[in-house]
Write a structure and sequence with these properties.
The structure holds 2 protein chains of 2 kinds. Chain A is built from 9 helices and no strands. Chain A is mainly α. Chain A folds into 2 domains: 39 residues; 208 residues, Orthogonal Bundle (MetI-like fold), CATH 1.10.3720. In chain A, helix 2 crosses helix 8. The two termini of chain A are 27 Å apart. In chain A, 35% of the residues are buried. Chain B has a domain of 162 residues: P-loop containing nucleotide triphosphate hydrolases (Rossmann fold). In chain B, helix 3 crosses helix 4, helix 3 packs parallel to helix 5 and helix 7 crosses helix 8. In chain B, strand 4 and strand 5 form a beta hairpin. The termini of chain B are far apart. Chain B has a 6-stranded mixed β-sheet, with helices on both faces. Chain B is an alpha/beta fold. The longest helix of chain B has 25 residues. Chain B is globular and about 50 Å long. Classes of the chains: A mainly alpha, B alpha/beta. Chains A and B meet through helix 6 and helix 7 of A and strand 6 and helix 3 of B.
């Protein structure tokens, strides 16, 4: 019985993943055919097999020398931005006045184009890690703030009354009720932030860096080396997917009760 | 002065949002003795839930006061003398059934008289009393609404409160489940001897459960009648078919309908 169930679960997972893998493969095949049949110049559209060869030859070096730095920047920025956002959300929930004063500025912060801020930070901090981490943090801040604020407020008035009947302290209400009920929202925000953080790091690298995937892509574009550009894009988005799935795995570990996760 | 578990409500009125706001309660006087089961019945919006929250120290009345065993109600609340069962089960979805029943113990710590190495056993026994043996490790989302409400009842009893406040706890349940839970509630209360203040909009349920039924008028809520229920305890579901039961229910229903007529006459067609 158990064996049968296990096997059918494996098949379930395969069936769920299969369509998205199939459509991706189909696109690659169409691309390959199009490039070959129309004889498109490789400096405009390298074929997937070209890019694959590039990845085979340069992939490891790219990953070790450049992607590593991009991901360090992205993860540090993600941690910084999320931590600041979580603290801000906690303050907002407990001090309505501060929220009224500062939330509009959080929106302003979000609407400032990071492409415009990145060169400024590079001027201030030079070709260091700092501007990249700050940009990644900046881009992570808002989705985590909005979700965490919503989550921390998601408790019912009856839950508050229940804790009041138990003569519970504010601290107890916070840890035992607010935090657990906000976790599904916080993880939804963190998942969005995880993908954004990689984008933030790469954009920051565009404006001044001596290593990183953003640096590689910009350099390759000056040389019209589109194969290297595509290789960089493929590597960075794969890393983004991995990062997203790590946060998703942490979410599954933290939210074990039924219907806890906000989306699949 | 009232003894432990007794409640004295004197001239309690409640007005929301200052003097222009809606008047919810008007001059409520009520004495409830320790161990008594009192049901409060009234139409929707008559302030019966508000009255329950004032007694439980969750709301301050605009005027009047409540004395709970010699203390104000907020003092009594701080001393954790109340158990409260809400309209919704209000269980925490991230805790299993046993974890939800143990929540008060975790929050109260040493202030819980049942706190100690065997607090888990006490919680398990309470779950058995409400017919949930074997469901300790289920999550709230995995059990029915009626079962969830029984968990809420076990949770409210888990720290041995003197007074149990219940706000239409079975209002959202089907009739069969409600009957079964009513019986279980009577059994459990008989065992613990707690004072119960039970808000409902069902006259039948009120008569079946309570020693006395307090009728409230529509907003602002005033006491229109306090009826003694003539049936001794323990009770069985069959008493509902006795003529006395029907007569009392009819009489109380007449009070509600009479009020409706007054409302109509005052407000015009």
């Amino acid at each position: 019985m158990r064996i049968i169930r296990k096997r059918s679960r494996v098949i379930d997972v395969l069936l769920r993943v299969l369509p998205s893998v199939a459509i991706f493969a189909l696109c690659l095949v169409a691309w390959e055919l199009w490039v070959n049949i129309r004889d498109v110049p490789a400096y405009l559209y390298p074929s997937p097999s070209d890019i694959g060869r590039e990845l085979r030859d340069e992939g490891l070096a790219l990953a070790v020398d450049d992607l590593r730095w991009t991901m360090i920047e992205a993860v540090l920025g993600f941690l910084l931005g999320s931590a600041v956002a979580l603290c801000t959300a906690v303050v907002f929930v407990h001090a309505k006045f501060l929220e009224r004063v500062f939330f509009p500025w959080a929106i302003v912060l979000q609407t400032v184009p990071i492409v415009a801020v990145a060169p400024l930070l590079t001027i201030w901090f030079g070709f260091t890690l700092t501007p990249k981490v700050l940009i990644a943090a900046l881009i992570c801040f808002f989705p985590v703030l909005v979700n965490a604020s919503k989550g921390l407020r998601s408790i019912s008035s009856q839950a508050v009354e229940l804790m009041s009947i138990l003569s519970a302290s504010k601290w107890s209400l916070f840890w035992r009720v607010r935090i657990p009920s906000s976790l599904p929202y916080i993880f939804a925000g963190l998942k969005v932030a995880s993908t954004l953080s990689v984008i933030g790091a790469i954009v920051a690298e565009f404006t001044g860096a001596d290593r990183g995937i953003g640096f590689v892509i910009i350099q390759a574009s000056y040389r019209l080396d589109t194969r290297l550009m595509f290789a960089g894009i493929a590597l960075s988005s794969a890393a983004g997917v991995v990062f997203f799935n790590i946060i998703g795995a942490l979410e599954r570990l933290a939210l074990r009760w039924p219907d806890a996760r906000l989306e699949r | 002065m009232t003894s432990s578990g007794g409640i004295a409500i004197d001239g309690v009125s409640m007005q929301f949002n200052g003097s222009q706001g809606a008047r919810a309660l008007d001059g409520i006087d009520l004495r409830i003795s320790a161990g008594e089961f009192v049901a409060i019945v009234g139409p929707s919006g008559c302030g019966k839930s508000t009255l329950l929250r004032i007694v439980g120290g969750l709301l301050e009345p605009t005027s009047g006061h409540v004395n709970v065993g010699g203390k104000t109600s907020s003092q009594a609340r701080r001393d954790v003398e109340f158990g409260f069962v809400f309209q919704q089960p209000t269980l925490f979805p991230w805790l299993r059934v046993l974890g939800n029943v143990l929540l008060p113990d975790r929050v109260l710590g040493r202030r819980n008289p049942n706190n100690g190495p065997n607090s888990k056993d006490i919680a398990r026994e309470l779950l058995r009393d409400v017919g949930l043996e074997g469901f300790e490790d289920h999550y709230p989302a995995q059990i029915s609404g009626g079962m969830q409400q029984r968990v809420a009842l076990a949770r409210a009893l888990s720290y041995g409160p003197n007074i149990l406040l219940m706000d239409e706890p079975f209002g959202a349940l089907d009739e069969f489940t409600r009957d079964r839970l009513n019986l279980q509630l009577l059994e459990v209360c008989n065992k613990t001897g707690s004072t119960v203040l039970f808000v409902t909009h069902s006259i039948q349920e009120a008569i079946f459960l309570a020693d006395r039924v307090v009728m409230l008028s529509p907003r602002p809520g005033r006491i229109t009648r306090i009826a003694e229920v003539p049936f001794p305890k323990p009770r069985t579901l069959e008493i509902r078919y006795e003529p006395e039961f029907g007569a009392l229910a009819g009489e109380l229903r007449g009070l509600l309908e009479g009020d409706d007529d007054v409302e109509l006459a005052l407000n015009g067609p």
